[in-house]
C-alpha cells in the first residue's frame, strides 16, 4: 500500500500541472468528454446485458416477432457503441498529443533552464539519458496514464452497475444443489469477488518482478542507444584508430544487458500469461457452472442464464482489472519512476545554491572590470581547485592565462560564465556586459550554415552579407555560398575550420568580454597570429582573455597571468609585462 500511495503521489505531481496550465480548459474539456463517453459505453453494456435475457428467451420460445424486434434494438445499441468508441479514441488521442506537447515543453524548459542540463552531468545524477525521458517516457506516461485511468474508472462504474443486476439474478436463480435451493443473498456477487481476489493475489505474486525488470530494460535500451550515437558522432576518431573491433565488442557487451534482461522479462511474462490466460478462460464457464443446476431444475430460462453469465463476466472483469492490466501497470510504474528521477535530478541541479555554498555572480556596480573576490573554485566532490583572493581584468585588456594541464583554467572560465557553481566567493561582472566563451571545440547546431554561425541568435537576426564578410575575414571565403546548406557542421568541417567559424561568430556578436579557451589551438601559428590581429582590429574595445600554451601568444596580450600550484590548489597570479606585437609579416 505504501508503494501504491507513493506511486499515485508521483503521478499526481507529474500530471496535475497540465490541468492547471494555460491549456487547462482544453485539457479538462477533452478529459471530461472521454470520461462521459466511457460512462455512456458502460450504460450501453448494461442495456446489452438486459437485451441478452430478452433475445435468448425469444429464441427459446420461438417468438419470431420478438426475435426481429430485438435484432433492431441490438443494431441501435451496436451502432451507438461503435460511434462512441470511435470518438472516444479520437478525443483520447487529441488529449494525449496536447498533454504530451505541454509536458515536453515543460521538461525542455526545466532541463535547458540556464545551465541545469550541464550541472546535472557534473553532479552525476541518476537521470541517465534525458533524451529518452523527454521523448519515450513522456509519451508512455501520457498514453498509459489515460488508458489505465479510464480503464480503472470503467471497471469501477461497471462493477457498481452490474453488481446490482447480478444481485437480483442471484435471488431469481438461487443456488441449487442436490435438489435443494440454498438461499445465499448475492451468491453470484460473492463468487465473482472470491474468484477475482484469488486471481489478483496470484497475479501479483507471479508478476511483481516485472516492475523492476521493465525499469532496467528501459535503462539498458537507452544506454545502448546512447553509445551507438557516440560511435556515430566520433566515427572519424574511431576510424583513424582502427577501433571498430573494440567498439563492436563494447556495443555487444552493452547489448548483452538488453538481451539478458529481456530473457528475464520473457520468462516472467510466460508465467504471468499462462496464469492470466487460464484465469480468463475459466471465467467464461464459471458462472454457467454456478447457474446450470437452477437452469436444469427449471428455475430460470435460457435468457436468464445467458444474462447471468454476461453480468458475472462484467463483474469479474471489473474486479480483475489489475489481473488483466498487470503488465501495463508494471511498465507504467517503471515510466513513472524514470520521470520522477528526472524531475528530482533537474530540481537538484537547479537548486544547488540552496543546499551548498556556491560561487556568486554579481554586478560590479560602477566598475567596468571583471573582479574575482575571495574566489575559491572547487570540484563537484568539494576538492579545492583554483583560488584568487583579489584579481581584476580591466576593460579592453588582453590577458593570457597559462598553467599546467588540469590546473583549472577552463573551469575558471566556466565559473565566469556562471555555469560552474561549485565553490565560494564572488565574481563581479559589469552590468549589461556581453560575455562570450569560445571553447577549443565550438558547438554548431545541425541546420543551415548561416544559422549555425550566428548561434545562439535566431534565424535572420544578422544579415547574410555580414556573415559572408566575417567568413572572408577569418579565411573561409569558400563557405560564403553555403549559408543555406543544411549540415552536421561539427562532423563535416575540420577542427581548424570550426575554430575559424567560432571566431567569425565572435566578430558578428561583438562581445564586450571574449574568453578564448585554446580557441585557436588547431591552427598553425601564422594563421593564429592573423586571427588575433583581426580580433584587435574588429573588436578594439573588447576585453580578450585567452587560455593558451604557445609562447607566440604572448605578443598579442598586454598581461600574462599563470595558475601556480600552492598545495592542493592553484592560485591565479604571476603577472608578466607586455611584449611587443610582431609585425604583419610575422
In short:
The protein has 586 residues and is of the alpha/beta class. It has helices at 2-15, 24-60, 64-111, 116-123, 130-172, 187-207, 210-233, 235-240, 244-296, 302-319, 321-324, 326-350, 352-355, 409-417, 449-454, 464-473, 489-492, 495-509, 525-538, and strands spanning 175-177, 180-182, 360-363, 370-378, 384-393, 398-402, 423-429, 435-438, 447-448, 486-487, 513-517, 543-547, 559-566, 569-576.
Written overview of the protein:
With 586 residues, the chain is an alpha/beta fold. The chain has 2 domains: 2-354, ABC transporter type 1, transmembrane domain (ABC transporter transmembrane region fold), CATH 1.20.1560; 360-576, Rossmann fold, CATH 3.40.50.300. The protein has 19 helices and 14 strands. The chain has helices at residues 2-15, 24-60, 64-111, 116-123, 130-172, 187-207, 210-233, 235-240, 244-296, 302-319, 321-324, 326-350, 352-355, 409-417, 449-454, 464-473, 489-492, 495-509, 525-538; strands at residues 175-177, 180-182, 360-363, 370-378, 384-393, 398-402, 423-429, 435-438, 447-448, 486-487, 513-517, 543-547, 559-566, 569-576. The strands form 3 sheets. Strands 3-7-4-5-14-13-6-12-11-8 form a 10-stranded mixed beta sheet, with helices on both faces. A two-stranded antiparallel sheet has the order 1-2. α2 runs antiparallel to α10. The chain is elongated, with a radius of gyration of 35 Å. 31% of the residues are buried.
